[in-house]
Each structure stands twice: as C-alpha cells, then as structure tokens.
Amino acid sequence: MKRFSLLSSLAVLFLLALPAWGQSLWQDGASLYADQRPRRVGDIVTVVVNERTNTKDEAKTDVTKDSNHQVDDGTGILDFIRGFGTSSTSDMEADASTERTHRLQTQITCLVTEVLPTGNLVIEGVRDIRTNTETLKLHLRGVIRPQDVTPDNTIGSDNVANAELFVEGKGTLSRVQRPGLLTQLLQAIF
Q1: Which residues of 27-47 are buried (b: 16+ CB within 10 A; e: fewer)?
Q2: Is the pTM value of this prediction over 0.85?
Q3: What is the dihedral of CA 56, 59, 60, 64, to 10 degrees?
C-alpha cells in the first residue's frame, strides 16, 4: 500500500511538472460591455436603406399672341415696291402632368473612410447585385454620427447626412428601356 501511494504521489508530481497547453476563455480587448460602434477609418457599419419618393408635377400654359405688320408703297427709286401687310395670331394651350414613385429597400455595408473633426464619420459602400444578365450597382456615400448607430451596428438611411445614393442598372433590361440612337437624335433636335 505504501508502494502504491508512493507511486501515485510520484505520478501526481510528474504531471504537475509538465507544461500546460490549455487556452484561456478570456480575450484581451474583448468586452461584453464595450461599445462596438464605428469610430475609426476602416470600421464597418451597415446602413438599412428604406427610401421612398413620391413626386407629382403639373403645369398649365395658355399663351395668345397677335401681331400686325404693314409696309407702305415704295417711293423714289424704290417705287417698284408695292405695299403689303401681314397679320398673324397664335394661340397655344398646353397641360402637362408627371407622377413618379420610387422605392428602395436593402442593406449595404459601408466602410468608414474619414473621421471629421466633429467626430462624425464619412462612410462609403458599393454593392453589385447580379441576376441573370442584369447587374444592379448600388453606391452609398454620406456622413453619420456614431451615436446614431444602434448596438447591432446598423443605422437607417434617414440618419445619413449628405447622402448620395446611386442605383444604376446594366444589362438586357436597361438596353430595352433606353431609346434607340435615331430616337435620341430626333429628341435632341426637336
């Protein structure tokens, strides 16, 4: 029994002398309570785009123009000119109406490209979406306040100041909707 306890004591001492390779669950710099909002150039923020525009333009024009011109008979060396007169009346009436509705809902992840002296952040992001033969390119640039970013690192597009939002489509659908070269030429002339 003494021999067993001596061997077990030696085994325990031997195991304690070996180096331990365990990894810690603690990570330096990570905190459950730290604010993860973007602050520096290169930080990432997701913009939830929910834009809707409704525009309606109406115009009405009424124009009337009368003109009379009279030339008398020529005298002296111009006696071969006979007197003549012209008169014209022009009436124009026009009504025009345009109504447009646009809606864009998506999310775009942007990088902080600049930190302004006020602490506000300039963000910019580009997203390309490709479906079949159509490519839709979305480009967003603007200025945000770090305090407007939610804890899940998102911000609504209505909180982006000086927002520049471009949506450009390329592909079959865009080519069909664009007028032909001859039509464009005639529209430029007339």
Answers
A1: eeeeeeeeeebbeeeebebbb
A2: no
A3: -170
